[in-house]
Fold this sequence. Notes:
The protein has helices at residues 12-38, 44-52, 69-94, 101-126, 132-159. The chain is mostly helical and 166 residues long. Helix 1 runs antiparallel to helix 5, helix 3 runs antiparallel to helix 4 (101-126) and helix 4 (101-126) packs antiparallel against helix 5 (132-159).
Amino acid sequence: MQYNGLLLTLPKEVKYFLATFIIVLSVGYFTGLLFVNQTETTRPSGIEENYLGNEEDVEAKVMKFKKGEREMLTIVHTHILSMSLIFFLLGGIMLFTKLPTSLKMFLIIEPFISIILTFGGIYLMWAGFIWMKYIVMISGVLMTLIFTTSVLIVLYQLLIKKNKIS
């Protein structure tokens, strides 16, 4: 079955349905990033402080305490499940875009690696591997860049690009 570029051939109603879904999914994803910005976890020291606390910093504007194991497991569990579902759905739509296979596979598979590195890294950092904060930051940024790139590709191919019979 030839599925590369199938997205371009879908009926207008299906394209609008998928585009609407992608837009709403993006609103949810980027709202989550606003929350990350509010918790000041956009830099390595902020990531560490958010999960390990800052009780010893007498000049801290907001006092933060180390998260408990139950809270950490809940954070890791819910984020891995929900992010996996987000990237499963987006990746499923990406399969039908017209792109070189190697690029398409990177955009589809890499986010799952970033999910494990980001949220597994948060847990490992909490457990004492402080250097994981750098892995968490890098993988989180990569995951967001791939999400944004994939969304733009899908929306472009759903709403703008015309199907050219080759």
